[in-house]
Amino acid sequence: MIIASNVSKQFGKLKALDNVSVNCGKGECIALIGPNGCGKTTFIKSILGMVVCDSGFITFNGKNIKHDWKYRENIGYMPQIGRYPENMTIGQVLDMMKDIRGKKNDKLDEELINKFGLIQILSKRMRTLSGGTRQKVSAALAFLFNPDVLILDEPTAGLDPVSSEMLKEKIIAEKNKGKLVLITSHILSELDDLITQVIYMQDGKLWFHKSIDNLREDTGEEKLSRAIAKVMTQ
Amino acid sequence: MKKIIKYVIIDILRNKIVLAYTAFLLLISISIFNLEDNSAKGLLSLLNIILIIVPLVSLLFPAIYVYNSSEFLELLVSQPLKRKTIWLSLFSGLAASMAFAFFVGAGIPILLFEATPTGFMMLGTGILLSVIFTSLAMLAAVKARDKAKGIGVVILLWLYFSVIFDGLILFLLFQFADYPLEKLMVGATAFNPIDLSRILILLKMDVSALMGYTGAIFKDFFGTQLGLIISFLVLVTWVLIPTWLSLRKFKHKDL
């Protein structure tokens, strides 16, 4: 569904992405793993067109994203740090996004809005929200429009255990509907029961992209965290 | 596009600074017209105040607004929207608010007290100046990632257009006093929209007789239909070029 070929991006002297090529198919739940500053977020942002890559190209459903913008209709994005217009209320932000996306109400997926209890605090201004509540708004927005692809950048960071469990259930449910889910996270133990494939990056380079079963076989470890630790120390 | 313009304008209204700016202009123009017994003289006093305040506010407010709405822009860019639509909507919203603030704050008193060709000229150039400096501010804001730097650039731009440019022209005039520079001066005004507006308005007034030989040359050019059309085209170019440059930059910006 998403194919990246030889994508490179440089910020000044830093090579954030170095010849990354990945092929992500439907129905997969892929974990993007790597040390801090290895280019995970840059990679995600270049899929979304927020960062324009220097060379290489990315296609979405066979179309180059460079001159396309409509493809973003099929993506739900949850940023690492959700930044929203500070003096808007939660309700206004939700309404604005619905208005901009122009989707009919009956096609919306408001499950997370209800589960996270955002309904009760719709009139709170964004600037007064705690980090966790912001994450809840980001998550609710990512799932709201029933997209085919979900891109979640550290989704559970800052969420309380109950909400984080709700979010995980939701991610599994969506994966089972045949959607593509891309997740980055540093809490590997959480990913165990979610993911089907692993992409490991370091210093802007793609080290490997394999299925979780292959990774387990190759390293002889059952737990993802141990398997990754083994890879990193090799 | 309309939807985004709507959200930008709602946000600007909520901000209240533009409302304060409108009230300030309204206060100044009404009090000036009431102070002077001759409303034509009032217009002249108003001219000098407007040519300083309008560019300053139209540069500073949009620049700060663009920096402060970086979250909003980030949110929009990840949505199924063209970057061109996002940027032009932001520009339209800001330009419309600044122009409308000028229209209400200065335009309505002008229409009430001095609905002459001079008054209309002032109304027209004032609205154009608001839009021109909004587009310059957005260019500065998209070029400089750092907020302090961007706002500094904007203040320097204002100093350049309202003070330094005139100084340079005077310097040139004195240095090359032996040469006939009058025609060149007509061309030089194209490089400063504030000067161009000032000349366009002054020539509509009787005071232009006091400007001597250069004034006569100016009158020869700007007084004609063709000169007027060219001047307005120049002012419109001052809107289009910065907007085009900032749009080109925004399309490839990493957010």
Q: Would you kindly provide a written description of the structure presented here, covering whatever features stand out?
A:
The complex is a heterodimer of chains A (234) and B (255). By secondary structure, chain A is α/β, with parallel strands linked by helices. Chain A has a single domain (2-233), classed as 3-Layer(aba) Sandwich (Rossmann fold). Chain A is built from 8 helices and 10 strands. In chain A, the strands form 2 sheets. Chain A has a 6-stranded mixed sheet, sandwiched between helices. In chain A, strands 2-1-4-5 form a 4-stranded antiparallel sheet, covered by helices on one side. The mean pLDDT of chain A is 88. Chain B has 255 residues and is mainly alpha-helical. Chain B has helices at residues 2-15, 17-35, 39-68, 70-77, 83-113, 117-143, 147-175, 182-188, 193-204, 212-222, 225-251. In chain B, helix 6 runs antiparallel to helix 9. The radius of gyration of chain B is 19 Å and the shape is globular. Chain B starts with a helix and ends with a helix. The model of chain B has no long low-confidence stretch (mean pLDDT 90). The A-B interface holds A 11, 45, 48-52, 69-73, 75, 77, 79, 83-88, 96-97, 99-101 and B 3-4, 7, 11, 14, 69-72, 74-83, 252-255.
